[in-house]
Amino acid sequence: MINENINTIRGVGGNASECCDTVEVHEELLNIVNSTMPEETELYDLAELFKVFGDSTRIRILFVLFEAEVCVCDLAAALNMTQSAISHQLRILKQNKLVKSRREGKSVFYSLADAHVRTIIAQGREHIEEE
Amino acid sequence: MINENINTIRGVGGNASECCDTVEVHEELLNIVNSTMPEETELYDLAELFKVFGDSTRIRILFVLFEAEVCVCDLAAALNMTQSAISHQLRILKQNKLVKSRREGKSVFYSLADAHVRTIIAQGREHIEEE
DNA sequence: TTATCATATGAACAACTATTCATATGTTTA
DNA sequence: TAAACATATGAATAGTTGTTCATATGATAA
């Protein structure tokens, strides 16, 4: 059971009828928001990071990189997409430090840059596989 | 060090020059993709889930719900947004089973529905706070 | 150098999304 | 019942994003 020791925010009277007809937001709630809410920039960065995971092409790229270090054209061939599309997505993954790259001759090999990638995706899979 | 026992996918010769000029995709890579890549629908669902986390308004809602069960109008007031905007986002969070709701009189109280929410966001924060 | 292969990238376009506005639904109180 | 309050939702719009196309950059081989 989640939230077992989390209070419901109500008005002073403690019933639902006083929930929303007060002009001032409940002080308790404001204290919570002010003390536990991350900074604006961190919230933005967090959303930005999850946006990167929110595209099935990038997810597929990550699943390939879970198993091997692969060059761009092989990724494109394996995922049956154009080199350009893959390259654009790799750029986003790299900007967000989820993958790293290494040039070897004409090819550029990509691999995972961060252990959190596996954890985050694993937790996501667990979530969607419930029921 | 990540990827310490993960092979680089190459051509038969094992050098970079044979990486991409083969007509057929490397068999080893195809085997990996076929055996470890989740189903199309799971990939789609995964991306869909992370899209939900990819918006700072929804992230802020979740941070409030980390601490308390809150009704819609209090969420709107605390986050300084319109009731309609919050309600639309709560709908998305609920559809993806990240929050649950409970009616009490005129108010509807929202709370976290799943422990994975905390884990996923915690991992995200760890990632962006590195360096 | 020139040709070729591998990758990166800017521009354009179509598809998607978050917010706003107006309004509908649901609940309580008078 | 009617009025007021809390929430939900459809439509419209502005902003964002993923792919394609054309082309530029970088590296190797002839």
Sheet of most strands of chain A: 3 strands, antiparallel
Average residue pLDDT of chain A:
87
Mind telling me the CATH class of the largest domain in chain A?
Mainly Alpha
Largest interface: A-B, 74 and 75 residues
Total DSSP helices of chain A: 6
The number of domains of chain A: 2
CATH architecture of the largest domain in chain A: Orthogonal Bundle
Amount of beta strand of chain A: 5-15%
Low-confidence stretches of chain A: 12-17
Task: Indicate the multimeric state.
Answer: homodimer
Topology, element by element:
2 copies of one chain form a homodimer.
Chain A: H1 27-36, H2 40-53, H3 56-67, E1 70-71, H4 72-79, H5 83-95, E2 99-104, E3 107-112, H6 116-129
Antiparallel strand pairs in A: 1-3, 2-3
Helix pairs in contact in A: 4-5
The first copy, chain A, binds a DNA duplex (30 and 30 nucleotides) through helix 5.
